[in-house]
């Protein structure tokens, strides 16, 4: 068994981390929030230089791993650009990216990004994005969709898994960063004359968050490996369920341990936390994701040792 | 990446399931019940495994093993625990007592103990915990004092699983008082049939044989009974812990029971509240998470890159899974009708057994965050690793 990304993918992820940092790091998101229409100009050149669009995650396993590593690095810096969605583009449509959307309220965090988007529901129904409504928090905009394959035709079912898995890697990168920031904070911040890190109540909260983060790490790798298999969709949904749960726990703990300063925009946590919301709520939030997976599993359960 | 264990592991899993089906009764709930026949099932099963070269397959060839891969060892752990550990108490001798004797024992100790373990003929118990030394093991008080060429051991152990049935005890005792409490500790290998040892069972919700008190009243042992060196016990304890890093494959039983639940409930499955079926789904993802975290620990350990925090995160995840899944399963089996007044099963024998399995799982799960290193200790290890690494 090989339970980790290959060394080339990991190196590519590290290269991307450095590239995003050199391009402005945390400032990228703050600049994009101030001027929404600069998202493309701020980030696309970095991704071009990284050769992101040469990756072909749908047909090449090395490219798949590299794409995942890139998404994780983008998440670490909360890069204000739909990297995962662009990498998930289907091979049989002439589009720039793929958005997995809910049936009834199709939305995505693509405000200000003028690209040719395809959208697909969890059932595999494909549309092209014909327009966007005014954007809300987190660059989220309601989408105006136009059928690609005709009503009742679900040609995109095979595209959904990757469209779900890569954004979970972005979210994982955000959790990596949130934990890193929080660990640094509790080591530095003193109360009652000692660092917060010396209090067992603080230590134990950190471990709760780390169990979630490290669990998500290994599930993300498993679901990535499963792409292309018969179980890929179920595995992607299971990952997504775990990712949302993990994000809930990690951000709750990180906010609590940061205290009031964590809500202030002078701390990165404040930005990470609120820009994690679209990844956690779209296309479906925790309860709806669990319901959807439960309906799909029926009586058979997830593939594992005994099913 | 590749999450496939490989053909050898798949074949071994098939073999083990076949042996369990053939040699373990359908209503088996482990060796530790009030029915002595259950213990006999386990003892026979160990001999069967030994005859087929499967009992000690993780051992090196020179000691009668097969040098099985870490993934084959993982399959054994999973299949045994998933099916109520049909090796009974002998898993301990196989998993770590034998390997520790290989590593630290004298030639005479190896000759005396290893063949018995390999043939499936001996049960060991672990004399570690004491009334005043649980998680803080090094504070133990059981003492061995020099008496000419011999040692005299006096003290009390507690929570000693299988002490009533064990032939040998892996005993940790204080042989001298040093600056640090971890110093001056020594391991002795002692026979449990010595009249200076008294065992008192403690009745408990986990069932008989799990919890016992063991009293040592001036037990005479010799230097030949010392494992390793006098005063070198703590490093052996650390070694024991390293064998137990992955520990019991709790996730395997959780997964088997959760996977079986829909068919056991039959038409009633769809009548369960949607919220409960949603919790079942959540537990399945948590089973997968714990299993994959276990595999990561196995992989890191086999490559020598393991850090204490790696195993601790897994242990926290798996022990909480054990308890959370037990609560979900208990709620699910409540939908299975109980026997009527005449004692007849109204849900079918298989469903009846399933409920018994789940109730057994629930009782055991209560101890999972306490036994073999409490969850608090795991959290301390993990937080130490997190705070030290950055």
Brief descriptors of the model:
heterodimer, A: 307 residues, Butyryl-CoA Dehydrogenase, subunit A, domain 3, 5-stranded mixed β-sheet, B: 390 residues, Butyryl-Coa Dehydrogenase, subunit A, domain 1, Butyryl-CoA Dehydrogenase, subunit A, domain 2, 3 domains, 4-stranded mixed β-sheet, 4-stranded antiparallel β-sheet, globular
How would you describe what is shown here?
The complex is a heterodimer of chains A (about 300) and B (about 400). Chain A has a domain at about 155-295: Butyryl-CoA Dehydrogenase, subunit A, domain 3. In chain A, about 55% of the residues lie in helices and about 10% in strands. Chain A contains eleven helices and seven strands. Chain B folds into three domains: about 5-120, Butyryl-Coa Dehydrogenase, subunit A, domain 1, CATH 1.10.540.10; about 125-230, Butyryl-CoA Dehydrogenase, subunit A, domain 2 (Beta Barrel); about 245-390, Butyryl-CoA Dehydrogenase, subunit A, domain 3 (Up-down Bundle), CATH 1.20.140. Chain B has helices at about 5-25, 35-50, 70-80, 90-105, 105-120, 235-245, 250-265, 270, 275-300, 310-335, 350-365, 375-390; strands at about 125, 145, 150-160, 170-175, 185-190, 195-200, 210-220, 225. In chain B, the strands form two sheets. Chain B has a four-stranded mixed sheet with strand order 1-4-5-8, covered by helices on one side. A four-stranded antiparallel sheet of chain B has the order 2-3-7-6, with no helix packed on it. In chain B, helix 7 (about 250-265) packs antiparallel against helix 9, helix 7 runs parallel beside helix 10 (about 310-335) and helix 10 (about 310-335) packs across helix 12 (about 375-390). Chain B is globular, with a radius of gyration of 22 Å. The mean pLDDT of chain B is about 95. Classes of the chains: A alpha+beta (about 300), B alpha+beta (about 400). At the A-B interface, helix 6, helix 7, helix 8 and helix 11 of A face helix 3, helix 7, helix 9, helix 10 and helix 12 of B.
